Amino acid sequence: MMRKGKRNTHTRRIRPQALLTVCFFAIYIILGLSLLIRQPFGNPPDEFNRYLIPQYIAEHGTLPNGYEESIRIPAYGFSYAFQPILPYMLQGYSMRLAGCFTQDPDILFYTARLVDFAFGLIMAVFVLLLSRKWFRDSRLQWIFSFLTMFMPQSLFLHTYVNTDSCCMMSIAIMLYGLTCCLQDHFRYRSCLVMSAGIILCALSYYNAYGFILSCILLFFAHFLSSRGGRIRLDWKPFLKKGLFISALVLLGIGWWFIRSYILYDGDILGLRARSLCGELYGNDDMKADVRITYQSLGHTVPSMLFRSDFLVLSLNSFICMYGPMVVTTALWIYRFYKLLFLVGILGCVLPLSRFGQPPEGISFPDPAGRDTDKPLPGGHPEPMLSGSGRPVGPGTERPALNRFFHVNMALCMLIPFILSVIYSYSIDYQPQGRYLMPILIPLCYYCVRGLEKLFFLFGSLRQHFKISKDGKRPVGQALPGWLPTGLCICLAALITAAAFITVYGYAFPYYAGL
Q1: What is the pLDDT of residues 348-394, one digit of tens each?
Q2: Looking at beta carbons, which pairs linking 128-132 to residues 24 or more positions away fall under 8 Å?
Q3: Average pLDDT estimate for 506-510
Q4: What angle do CA 263, 265, 266 make, to 5 degrees?
Q5: Contact call for residues 208 and 170 (beta carbons, < 8 A)
Q6: Vertex 346: Cα angle to 341 and 348 (nearest 5)
Q7: Distance of CA 397 to the CA centre of its chain
Q8: Are 180 and 193 in contact (CB under 8 A)?
Q9: What is the pLDDT of residue 513?
Q10: What is the tens place of the pLDDT at every residue in 12-46?
Q11: Would you call 69 helix, strand, or coil by DSSP?
């Protein structure tokens, strides 16, 4: 009877989490498939030109050369095949497989879109796993997951033919693998996950390469230690794990860059070859030496940033702009997200030490020079990690590594913004939020981390004001303790409502009129 009672208690405890998990994936599937099916072909940003590549692969069964005439963009004169095309490859071969059963062009087209939808589904899984590594409070885990997946523009990326969807999935996998590596001292299974994320990122989108750089920098930093005032590198585990990760990554991506080196006269990134192709086949007014840009007009970068609509358009389209940057959503949704990000970031930088010990953010234990793939007596690697990813037992915290991790995340958010500024300033003025989407996951972390610190501040203030013996609340008594839970429920509801309103209240009517 006692065992039965314990089992029933455990079942009651996990039921809300299981229900939330079902709702989380159901929302993604309903909204994602609705957009995927309802959007007309070619209406999302540049989908027509992107679809040429998977279509070519489906028809020929081989990868196209970037100079191939049938896939070139007429006005610009180049094609997207110069860049990494792993997502297009998966779409093309999926279409080729579907072609064994039908030649209906609509079915083949939706097959390509479904590949991106699957990328989003995998991303949602890793976002959930990542939330449990980064937050101890389950309420904050769900806020982070809902915010990351259901911001309207984030959802939109997984519903049409592009490489951004695979890129976002790769970042979620990479950050989850990196977090696991730094917490369990690069066990081989964690290295496998991180390596998979690096490979997918390297073969999908150059703008997200900052995350690959951060993985490299944090790998080096993890094996550095200070002893007696001297910096020391633990060579044995560094070489052992470094060679393992390098071998996996090179096997995964080396073929593409070797191919580019052979096809494009040593241009492994394909960027120089793409520019040359544009010069050869592009329209005269689209060539680099005659194209009108802020740089060619003699304006400065600050002038473009603060005297044009660059920042406003970039931010608004980061939140939501569907189609060719023409489908907007309700004004309150833009204000809601701007306020949420502002309050969250401000809360994140609040110094709260005077109110007590604030909740810890992401933290990593000290390996103490041990190779954790070899278990200690008793069968467990040291240090043991709690369910929240925090060390328990002999392992000690590494404040310097923790700080360096956040410096790297700031760098990962800064790089896409800088690249977007450079592109709009010197090449083609396109302030599009989708170029900034790689910053989404770290941005959502710091936003929710700020809410966590504000909850702590609220709790500290609440403890500061005690109810008097006669049961009356003194002036200034803080609100009751259920407020953080209620606020989390409201935030999740608003995020979900914003997604549904955007899809069914704004996008669908626009598509119906086309």
Answers
A1: 888 765 555 556 667 676 654 444 444 333 333 333 333 333 333 33
A2: 128/21, 128/24, 129/176, 130/172, 130/175, 130/176, 130/179, 130/441, 132/387, 132/388, 132/389
A3: 96
A4: 100
A5: yes
A6: 95
A7: 27
A8: yes
A9: 84
A10: 455 888 999 999 999 999 999 999 999 999 899 99
A11: helix
Distances (CA, A) of 84 to 113, 135, 286: 18, 34, 23
Strands 230-233 and 224-227: antiparallel
Residue with tokens 């633990």: 234
Using DSSP's 3-state secondary structure scheme, residue 397 falls into strand
Only one residue has tokens 């069964």, namely: 61
Band (pLDDT 50/70/90 cuts) for residue 345 is very high
pLDDT digits (tens, 9 = 90+) for 119-168: 999 999 999 999 999 998 889 999 999 999 999 999 999 999 999 999 99
What is the DSSP code (8-state) at residue 206?
G
187-201 pLDDT, tens digit per residue, is 999 999 999 999 999
* Tokens (6 digits) for 363: 């933290």
Q: Among positive and negative, which fits the CA dihedral 206, 212, 142, 454?
A: negative
- How high does pLDDT run on average in the chain? 86
Three-state SS string over 216-259 comes to: HHHHHHHCEEEECCEEEECHHHHHHHHHHHHHHHHHHHHHHHHH
Q: How many residues does the chain have?
A: 514
Concatenated DSSP letters of 447-484: HHHHHHHHHHHHHHHHHHSPPPTTSPPPTTPPPPTTHH
* Contact call for residues 3 and 84 (beta carbons, < 8 A): no
CA-wise closest residue to 161 among 58, 82, 324, 46: 46
Q: Give the CA distances from residue 493 to residues 76, 143, 314, 460, in Å, rounded to whole numbers and listed in that order.
A: 44, 10, 26, 26
Q: Residue written as tokens 């809410």?
A: 451
Q: What are the pLDDT digits (tens) for 304-333?
A: 999 999 999 999 999 999 999 999 999 999
d(CA 503, CA 498): 9
Which token pair is 457?
A: 């501040």
CA distances 312 to 306, 307, 317, Å, are 10, 11, 8
**pLDDT of amino acid 397:** 60
Closest listed residue to residue 415, CA positions, set 388, 390, 442:
442
CA distances from 170 to 121, 415, 434, 477, 483 (A): 12, 17, 16, 47, 36
